[in-house]
Amino acid sequence: KAGVTQTPRYLIKTRGQQVTLSCSPISGHRSVSWYQQTPGQGLQFLFEYFSETQRNKGNFPGRFSGRQFSNSRSEMNVSTLELGDSALYLCASSHTRDTRRENTQYFGPGTRLTVL
Amino acid sequence: GEDVEQSLFLSVREGDSSVINCTYTDSSSTYLYWYKQEPGAGLQLLTYIFSNMDMKQDQRLTVLLNKKDKHLSLRIADTQTGDSAIYFCAETYNQGGKLIFGQGTELSVKP
Fold it and tell me: Diameter of chain B by CA atoms?
């Protein structure tokens, strides 16, 4: 089975621009979660989508948004980019979101976003 | 609350055992995970343990869980230079799809 794929792998933008990142989950996985990784804040949860609906959201401003398509692929969008948005954005997929069952998240390689 | 704590650095000699420790706060966590991250890469799942287990062994990896103290450890036997990486423990918060991560422990293996 192919793993989680993310595109693009690297991105350079300037302040004020917007960006869209894409994530394709493992085949059969319906839950997609997004995380931001920075040296200062570590790994922080952005949001989770399941069956095309946002089910869970982290503590990020409204500039961060996402969506999920019927084939479970997901995109996240960041508008009005700030310097502090420079980070590695990781996408993870899992088969289920039921915490009573093993719902291991498998991660993609990430998209490295640099905001100048 | 949401808080997972790990020590930041660990240095061992090749061939020794490494023990990486983690404490968590959410007693309702059902699964606890260990991930490995190499430079420039995403997170690679190493192993996980269900909260009703005390120990899980998987080849060179041994996970110990002390639920009373909310303490999790990862032991790597016969540590190799290729094990040099950052190791993260994570707990599933009570809301599906969300993992709470520790700060990561940077393991340095010296030949």
Answer: 43
Phi-psi region of B19 (alpha: psi -120 to 50; beta: other; left: phi over 0): beta
Q: Is B82 helix (H, G, I), strand (E, B) or coil?
A: helix
Amino acid at B61: L
The nearest alpha carbon in chain A to B98 belongs to A45
Helix, strand, coil percentages for chain A (3-state, nearest 5): 5, 50, 45
- Strand-pairing partners, residue A87, are A113
CB contact under 8 A, A103 and B88: no
Give the closest-approach CA distance of A107 to chain B in angstroms: 6
Residue with tokens 């302040």: A15
**Are B101 and A108 within 8 A, CB to CB?**
no
The answer to whether A46 and A26 are in contact (CB under 8 A) is no
Digit-coded pLDDT (tens) for A62-100: 999 999 999 999 999 999 999 999 999 999 999 877 766
